[in-house]
Amino acid sequence: MIQIEKLRKTYRSRGREVTAVDGVDLHVRAGEVFGVLGRSGAGKSTLLRCVNLLERPDEGRVVVAGRELPALSGGELRRARQGIGMIHQHFGLLGSRTVAGNVAFPLEVMGVPRARRAERVAELLELVGLADHAKAYPAQISGGQKQRVGIARALAGEPKVLLSDEATSALDPETTDSILELLRRLNRDLGLTILLITHEMNVVKRICDAAALMRDGRFTESGPLRELLARPGSELARGLFPLPPVPHRPGATVADVTFVGAATGRPVISTLAREHDVDVNILAGAVETVGGAPVGRLRIELPGPPEGNAQHLAFLREAGLTVEVASAVPAEVLRVGGAPPDVAAVGTSDEEAK
After folding, report:
1. Count of domains in the chain?
2. Are residues 70 and 184 in the same domain?
3. Ranges for the ABC transporter domain (predicted)?
4. What percent of the chain has pLDDT over 70?
5. What is the CATH number of the domain that holds 269?
6. Is residue 347, in this structure, part of any structural domain at all?
């Protein structure tokens, strides 16, 4: 549905050239929710604005719903953009218009007849749960309700693609959850393809099917969440499902084991202990739902060094689990509260990281 190849966008700033997007490739399949995660300044917003050509890339291809947008004329591009909705971090509502008037605005621009506009606005407000607020003004409703208005407005032209620019970062956690649930429902019920950018790891965990980590204008890794979770060394996987550092015995082997899908229901660890006659100490663990699939992670300790546990680690890998031998965390580090930085911080904004 969205195909981007070798996208590059630069700006002039204070007499020097700044590369905001540096050779990015992106493929979002029809009906998929794809998240681009990164800190402020990583290039996420520029990338998103290049998808609907609010920013024209210097190089690269941008294909949406089979149409190469940079090659379209002005009129053709305007029509193509009707198939691409966009929601914003700060809502962008017109304060002088009612909720219904804000949703109707793009329909007016498209020249939709008055009767059909009224019918469509009513449908959209019902869809986002604001049928009772049609006559209210933006100043009279909450932040979450404003974002629902923004979503309804973005859907006015019946788009196939929805772009989300930090749509939940200005909302409290409870309201964020309700907006994410709404987006997932729209994705499922309307068959919407959603490309969202965020600095919040929880957003990716809650609703995305696939994700990319962006840093300095480039993707450092990307793919379906299920593949990322099973990819040894994945920063995104560790950020999506971090385990706390815990002390362990000197000379022992500590391994992080990830179970995805059906593997979460199999007694692999107990089978290892029984069949290999080895003591397995579970140091930490949890089971969550990531990208709609159950995922389990355990940090286990085996007696002896890694080379002496090669067959035990191989048994776990042959059972379909992802196994990473972890570094030892000295107990004195934990006692003073100075644990090593967690990879989950890649999903925070610059302001939050301070």
Report:
1. 2
2. yes
3. 2-241
4. 89
5. 3.30.70.260
6. no
Q: What is the CATH number of the domain that holds 54?
A: 3.40.50.300
Residue 354 within a domain: no
Instruction: Identify whether the C-beta of residue 197 lies closer than 8 Å to the C-beta of residue 45.
Output: yes
- pLDDT per residue as tens digits for the range 228-278: 887 878 888 888 777 777 676 788 899 989 887 666 677 899 999 999 999
Name every residue whose Cβ is closer than 8 Å to that of residue 97 and which is 6 or more positions away in sequence.
105, 137
Question: How are beta strands 281-290 and 253-260 bridged, if at all?
Answer: unpaired
Q: Could you tell me which of 47, 53, 59, 1 has the C-alpha nearest to residue 27?
A: 1
- Residues 290 and 286: their CA atoms lie apart, in Å, by 12
- Residue 110: give the domain boundaries: 2-229
**46 shares its domain with 106:** yes
Using DSSP, state whether 46 is helix, strand or coil: helix
Token output for 260? 């995805």
Tell the burial category of 293 from Cβ atoms under 10 Å away from its Cβ (0-12, 13-18, 19+): middle
Confirm whether 15 is domain-assigned. Answer: yes
User: Which pLDDT score, from 0 to 100, does residue 354 have?
Assistant: 34
Q: What is the pLDDT of residues 82-130, one digit of tens each?
A: 899 999 888 889 999 999 999 999 999 999 999 999 999 999 999 999 9
